[in-house]
Each structure stands twice: as structure tokens, then as C-alpha cells.
Amino acid sequence: MSNNCPTPKHNAIRFHLILPVTRIGIGLFSFDPVEQFLGVSIPDILEPLRFGQVERRPSQAGPGVDCYPLALPVGEGPLCQRSCRLA
Q1: Which of 79, 8, 14 is nearest to 51 (CA)?
Q2: Strands 29-31 and 62-72: what pairing?
Q3: Rounded to whole angstroms, how far apart are CA atoms 30 and 28?
Q4: DSSP bridge partners of 68
């Protein structure tokens, strides 16, 4: 698939993905059921799209949340068609 999108790289779509902390800690032991199910950690999956450091924030609704700053590169997925029209 060729990338005919004229939009420069600095126009990547940036957003923050906020996910609850899934690691369960009991004393010295910790367990992440999502990581065990997927076979890889969420930060490792999102690494290619990250443009900054992961930030852990407290949540009033319960457990803390991890905030992943992500950038969808130009030409990736159906959003390219929209970003090409806006340029």
C-alpha cells in the first residue's frame, strides 16, 4: 500500500490513550492478567506509536490510570483519507 498523503510528519494525529492499571500486587508478588492473556505487555504493544513518557495518574473512580501519549503516523489507517483532505 503506497502512501500518497501529502501531509507532513508533524501533522500526525496525537491523542492520549488512558487505560486503568491492570497489575495486581499482593505483597512481593505482582500479576497482570491482561499481560498474561495477551502474552505481551500493553506498553510494549504501544511503543511504536508513543511520542512521550507514560504517566500514571490517580483516579477518583478507583485504581490509578496509565496515560499513553500516542501519535498515529500520517498514512496509517482510514484516518489518512481525512487528514489528506484537511491539508
Answers
A1: 14
A2: unpaired
A3: 7
A4: 17
Residue type, 84: C
Cβ neighbours of residue 68 under 8 Å, at least 6 residues apart?
A: 16, 17, 18, 19, 43, 46, 50, 54
Q: Give the three cell numbers for residue 21.
A: 492499571
Q: Is 71 helix (H, G, I), strand (E, B) or coil?
A: strand
Cell (9 digits) for 73? 503516523
- Cα–Cα distance for residue pair 19/56, rounded to 1 Å: 10
pLDDT digits (tens, 9 = 90+) for 40-51: 988 899 998 899
Helix, strand or coil, per DSSP, at residue 78 = coil
pLDDT reported for residue 6? 45
- What integer best gives the mean pLDDT of the chain? 78
Rounded to two decimals, the pTM is: 0.66
